[in-house]
Description:
By secondary structure, chain A is mainly β. In chain A, 7% of the residues lie in helices and 55% in strands. Chain A has 8 helices and 47 strands.
Amino acid sequence: MHKHIFMLLLCSVFFANAQNCNYTLSGKVIDLHDDSVLPGATLIVAGFEKVTQSTIDGTYIFSNLCEGTYTIQISHPNCATQAFKVKVSSDLEKNFRLEHHLEELNAITLNAAIFGNKTKTLFEQKITEAQLDRFSNGSLGDILNTMSGVSSLNTGNAVVKPIINGVHSSRVVVMNNGVRMEDQEWGAEHAPSIDVNTIGNITLIKGAGALKYSGDAVGGIIITEAAKIPVKDTIYGKTHLSTATNGRGGTLTSTLTKSYKNGWYGSLQATVKRYGDYEAPDYILSNTGVFGRNIAARIGINRFDYGVDAYYSYFRNEIGILRASHIGGASDQVRAINSGFPLVIEDFTYDINDPRQDVTHHLFKVRGFKRFKNLGEVTLQYDFQQNERLEFDVRRGDDADKASLDLQLSSHTVRLDLDTEKNFPVNFKTGLAGQFQQNVADPSTGVRRLIPDYERINLGIYGVGNYEITNNWLVEVGGRFDYIHLDAQKFYRTSFWEERNYDVLFPEIVVGEFGNQILTNPKLNFSNFSATLGSRYTFNDEYKLFFNYSLASRAPNPSELFSEGLHHSASRIELGDLRFNSEIAHKVSLTLQKQGSVFGFSINPYLNLINDFMIIEPTEIQQTIRGNFQVWEYRQTDARLVGLDIDASLSFTKNLSFYHQFSFVKGYDRTLDIPLIDIPPVNTTNGLVYQNSKLNNFRLEVKSEYTFRQNEFPDTNFEVFVPETNTQELVDVSTPPDAYHLVHVNSSVDFKLTQKSMLHVGASVSNVFNTNYRNYLNRLRYYADDLGRNFSINLKITY
Amino acid sequence: MKTFRISTLALITLVSSLFIACSSDDDTPIPVNEEEIITTLTLTLTPATGGTAITLQTRDLDGDGPNAPVISISGDLTPMTTYNGTVVLLNETVTPADNITLEVIEEAEEHQFFYTTNASLDLTTSNFNVDANSNPLGTTFTLTTGAASTGTLTATLRHEPTKPNTGLNDAGGETDISATFNVTIQ
Lengths: 799, 186
C-alpha cells in the first residue's frame, strides 16, 4: 500500500516543473535511539539515478537537485530500510534518523522501551551513564535532583524522594528495568529501593503521558534502564570505588558482563555502601549512618526477532534517622525548634541505632519478545517484587529491639504489550496488565498497624497511537483504563470509628469487636480512566515544539485511606479517610527545545489542575497523656500547580561551556485559596564546565546552586502548653528556612591502562564554603542543619 | 518459536494460578494491643501525718485516639502540709492492666519524673527517689504545700534525659508523659 503512495508522490515529482536544478540536499544519517551518526548508509533518491553513501561522520550530500518533492530511501546494513519525503525549494540541510537495531542486544526492549522515546509528545530529559558515575555514592533522588523541575523531599540526607513539578510519593511512578516499583512509595519518608549503580540511564517524563506504564503518574514517571549489552563475543566490567570525608565512608561497586555473538549474555553486579554519621558544618548529625547492599544479575538471549531475558535484584538499605528528630510531642518540638541546634549530638560512630529503617527489596523479572511480520513486536513480562520494610523507634523495656513498623508487600504483575512495527506513518502500541498485591503488617511489633493487611488487584488496558502527519509534525493519542479492587482488614479504634461517623456510614463492613478496637473489612473499587493527547512539531534540525495534555487518575493509596494514629517519626497524629475517591489531574505542558552545538535550550511551562487532590494538613491539636500532638488529616481539595522549567547550555569554546537550570512552581489549594504545603522553592543551578579530550579527558566543573526562600506556604503553626515555663508557646512548623547558595566543584581525568582498560579518577568538593543551611523540603529541617563540606574521591576502572 | 509459545502459556498459567491462590486467602488478622501505651497516670499524695490521701488522675483509654484524657482530682490540698507522693502508670488497654511504673523503675537511669507548677501555685516537690547512679528518678517524692492558692501542677516523664540535670530546661530527652492538673490549696 505504501508503494502506491510513493508511486503517486513520485509521479507528482515527475510532473512538477523543474525551474532550478542547482539545489543541494545534505545532512547526516543518525541513529534514532542515541543520536550517534551512522556511516555507510545508502541513500537513493527514488525515481532518479542518484545514489550516495554516508561518510564516516554520517554526512551525505546530493547536488544538482531541482525544485520539487523527493522520496529519499535509506538503507543501512543494520537498519530497516526507510523512506523519507523531502521538499526541496532551496539548498537544504536535513538529518535523517534511522531505527538502528541489529547490532544492539537490547532489541529485546528496543522498540518498547530502551532508548526509544517513551512518549512522542512529552519532552523527555535523560541522564546518561557518564553523569550517573558521578553519583555512585548517592541515591536515585540525588541524581534526579540535578534535573530541572525535579526537587526532592528528604528525611535527613539518606532518604531522598523525588518531587516532580511539585508533587511526589504516589504521584511519581518509578519504572525500574521495565518493572513498576512497588516499594511502599506512598510514604514521604520511604526512598525508592533502587541502587543507582544498577542503572544504565534514566529518562524523566514530567507528565502522565507514558500510558504504557501507568495512568496515575500525576507528577511524572522516572524510567531507569540497565546498560546496553553488545551482541559480540566479549567480556568486560567495571569497578568503582568512591570515598567521602563527610560520613567517613564509601561505596564499592562492580559489574561484570559477558556476551556472545549468538545473542546470549549475562551480567552480574554488586554494591556495598557504608557510611557513618554525616556532619553539618558545626556538628555531627548523630545516627545518620547508612549501610546499603545490592546484588543484581541478568541473563538472556537476544536475536533480531525474538528474545528472552531474566533479571533479579536484591536491595537492602539500613538507614539511621537523625536521633535528635525523635521527639515525644509538641512541647519537645518547641524545644527542638527553638534551640537552633540538634538536642542530641554524640561522637562520630558507624553504628546505626534507633530510630532507623531497614528495607529489603527483591525484584525478579522475566520477559520475552517476539517480532511478528505484519503485526509488530509482542512482549510478555512477569515480575515479582517483595518489599520488606522495618522501622525502628526508640522504645522502652522488652520492646526496645522490636520494630515499630513491619510491612511486607508482595506484588505479582503480568504484562502483555504489542508495539506495531514502525509502519510509517502510523505506530500503535497497546497492552494489558494485571497485578496482584498483598500487604501483610506483622502484629508482633506491639504497635497498631500503620497500614492494614490488604489485597489489591489492578487490571489495566491501554492503547497509544501516533501519526506522522508530515515528516516534521507528529500527533499522539492514547487512552488507558484501570480497575482497582482493594480488600483490606483494618482495625479501627472504636472512639475514632464513632467520631468519624463511620458506624452510621459503613456498619456493613464491621467484622467484629476486640476491646476498644473494631475489625472492619473495607472492599473498595476504583475505575480510573486516563488519556493523553499531544503533538510534536519539528521546525528544523534545531527547533522542536512539544505540546501535551494528559489526564491522570490516581486511586487513593492505603495511607490516604487508612492512616489512623501517631506517626512517631513525624511526631504527629495522621488520619486517613475511607470515603476518598480517585484524584483526577489535567496537565498541559508545552516545551520549546533548541538543539545546537553552541547554544541549546528548552523552556517548559506547564499547568496541572488536580481535582480531589489528596493532601495532608494540620487540623487541630489533640490531647493525649503524652502531651499534645498536632493532628494531620487527609482531605480532598482542588489544586492548581503552575510552573516553568528552563535548561540552557552555551559553549564558549570547544572546551569551555556554561549551563543553566531554573525551576519554578506555584501550588495553590483552589478551594481554600491558600498555598499548598511542601512546594519546592524557586531554584537555579548554573555551572561552568571545562573539558579537554586531549588532556586525558580532563574535566573540571564548578557548580552554583541557589535556592530561594519559599515565600508561599500555609500557616500551620499552633500553640502548645510547655510545662518548663508554664506558658503557651507557638510551635512554628511552617515558616520556611532562608534562601541558600551552595558551590560545588568536581573534576576528573581518564588514564588508559592497557588496550582494553581505563582508569577514571575523580575528585570533588561539595558545599565548598561549608555553608550552614536548612532545606524547606527536608522533613528534619526543624532539628538540624543540612550537610557540610564533603571531599570525595572516585576511582573507576573499566576493563 | 514453538518453545516461546509454550513458555508463554506456562507463564500465563502459572501467574493466573498465583492470582487465584492468593486471592482466596482470607485469614482474619489478630488485633494489636499496644504494649507500651500508658493510659493512666495516678499521683497519690498521702499526708505525712496521716489522713485521707488525695489522688490526681489522668486517664486516656483510647491512647492516640480522638478522646481527650479524663482528669479526676479527689480533693483539695491542705496548706502548710507535707505529703508523701507516689506515681503509678498503667496500661489499661489490656486486662489485667499493666503496671508501667515497674518498667520505668527497671530502667531508672533512662527515666526521670519532673513536677512543675505555675507561679500562682504555692507548693514544692523534693526528696525524689534515685536511680543506681544516685540521680533523681521521681516515682516517689515529697510534696510540701505553702499558703492557700490555686494553679497548675504538671507531671512530666522524660525518656533518656541528661542526668544529672537542673530541671526540665536542661534535661532533654523525649516526653513520654505530660499531665497537667488544676490544683487548689485551701
